[in-house]
Amino acid sequence: MTEQNRKWIYLFVLSIIWGTSYILIKKGLEGFTPIQLGSARIVIAGFFLFLIGYKSLKKISKEEWKWIALSGFIGSFFPMFLFAYAETEIDSSIAAILNSLVPLFTLFVGLFAFGISFSKNQLIGVLVGLIGAAFLIFFGKGVNPNQNYWYAGFVIIATICYACNANIIKSKLQNVTPMGIAVGNFAAIIIPAIIVLPFSGFFSIQVTSGEHFWSSLGYIIILCVIGTCIAKIMFNKLVQISSAVFSVSVTYLIPIVGIFWGILDGEKFTLSQFLAALLILVGVYLVNKKKTPRKTS
């Protein structure tokens, strides 16, 4: 299989996995608070990653560890809590839609912080995708007027974190294996999460005896193993075999998967939102379209 084909397969598989993550967060919040959910995700995912990939830590140099740690906090630690807080007030599908802001921030973080240039095609594609996302949000607000959209700010902060992380991996961690990055990330953030978890009340009788404790814990475990561990390794590999902008184009497809799960869970979705989703796909195409070489006579 060619690298070109592989990166597209990674893109679509990741969109399905991460598009499903938002409904799993929503279900996890039925039994836990955002702090409990976020810290539990980090601890469970961290232990799972250590079991399957602890040997990869030996190949990380001292110079690379500072970027690994920064990537862990920016790309995993803070976003896990931010999305959990956001979904206490907004639908899972809206959170998935807002995540499509990542490519825009990736372009500008890459340009101003890392000196990575981007093409006119990429900029137009990102803008088209953002317009589609804006329409989705606008139409969604009309369908759900009682939602508190101030909480969408947590998602926006998380998207900036993701954008910074993609550029860190592309610019500073090209020589580290995808497994090494994933395990190293959680090696850096698991200790703070272990400290937070008992103080969050996760093990209190009120929580463990709650109606949704076991079902919510099951959703979190699925979210950790597939949505965090497996997906994170795949994403790190995708960044390395493509570009930071291409890799975060997965955020254009995530809303479509997120909306699908939202509908199954009783969230409303209109024809207008469907058309806006198609516009997002046009943005993905433009971001990744290669210029056709001109024929010379």
What is the strand and helix layout of this fold?
Blueprint: H1 3-28, H2 34-53, H3 62-86, H4 92-98, H5 102-114, H6 120-143, H7 152-172, H8 178-199, H9 205-208, H10 213-241, H11 244-247, H12 250-264, H13 271-288
Helix pairs in contact: 1-4, 1-10, 1-12, 2-3, 2-8, 2-10, 3-7, 3-8, 4-12, 5-7, 6-13, 8-10, 12-13
Name the features.
single chain, 297 residues, mainly alpha, 13 helices, 77% helix, disordered C terminus
Question: What structural class do the secondary elements suggest?
Answer: mainly alpha
> What proportion of the residues is helical, as a percent range?
over 70%
Number of strands: 0
Integer-rounded radius of gyration: 19 Å
User: Regions with pLDDT < 50 over 5+ consecutive residues?
Assistant: 293-297
Shape category = globular
Q: What does the main sheet amount to?
A: none
Q: Roughly what is the average pLDDT, rounded to an integer? A: 84
Note the total helix count.
13
The fraction of residues in strands falls at under 5%
- Compressed to H and E, one letter per element, the order equals HHHHHHHHHHHHH
Distance between the termini: 34 Å
Summary?
The chain is mainly α.
Structure description:
It is a single chain. α4 packs antiparallel against α12. The protein is built from 13 helices and no strands. By secondary structure, it is mainly α. The two termini are 34 Å apart. 77% of the residues lie in helices and 0% in strands. Residues 293-297 have low confidence and may be disordered. It is globular and about 55 Å long. The chain has helices at 3-28, 34-53, 62-86, 92-98, 102-114, 120-143, 152-172, 178-199, 205-208, 213-241, 244-247, 250-264, 271-288.
